[in-house]
Amino acid sequence: MSEHxHxHxHxHxHxHxxxxxxxxxxxxxxxxxxxxxxxxVVDLGAGAGAGTFALLSRFPEARVTAVDVSVEDLQRLHxxxxxxGLADRVRTxxxxxxxxxxxxxxxxxxxxxxxxxxxxxxxxxxxxxxxVLAPGGVVLLVEKAVHDGLHGGxxxxxxxxxxFTVAADRTLRDNGLQVVLARREGGK
Length: 188
Hints:
Layout: H1 16-31, E1 40-44, H2 50-58, E2 63-68, H3 71-83, E3 90-94, E4 107-113, H4 122-132, E5 133-144, H5 155-161, E6 165-172, E7 177-183
Parallel strand pairs: 1-2, 1-4, 2-3, 4-5
Antiparallel strand pairs: 5-7, 6-7
Helix pairs in contact: 1-2
């Protein structure tokens, strides 16, 4: 995820994930089957791993592929996973999604929090996400709800255009974030 003239690249942590991670994981629980739960989760724009560790906690049988442009953040994430005894459940992938799409395998769940607005073409990335998800797979996006020329916009129509069915779309009034959960049809 590259810089786009607004003074920062990804990996800096906007602080969204820790504040509302319970809300996000509750939304996931509401829209995903409890059994067996996702086996492979992708955390797109993982940073130092706040979302990754929330997902590992919520889905104890899952493996998480953490993707970020920052080698330093991914190293911190890896080190923390080792400290917690979770290294066997975490794979880190360094990638600039504006430059190309890494091999992530097929995911049951894709989580992206505060990362897609950094991309030059979020619509293209949403189409790639659609291709990575298994039929019936779920994507949860947390992004700025207000389009200011640098961030966000209305993410639900972009997900629909990329081939998803939107299951939930909420705006958090306290911080202006839009939380959208969508499913790739064809299963579950």
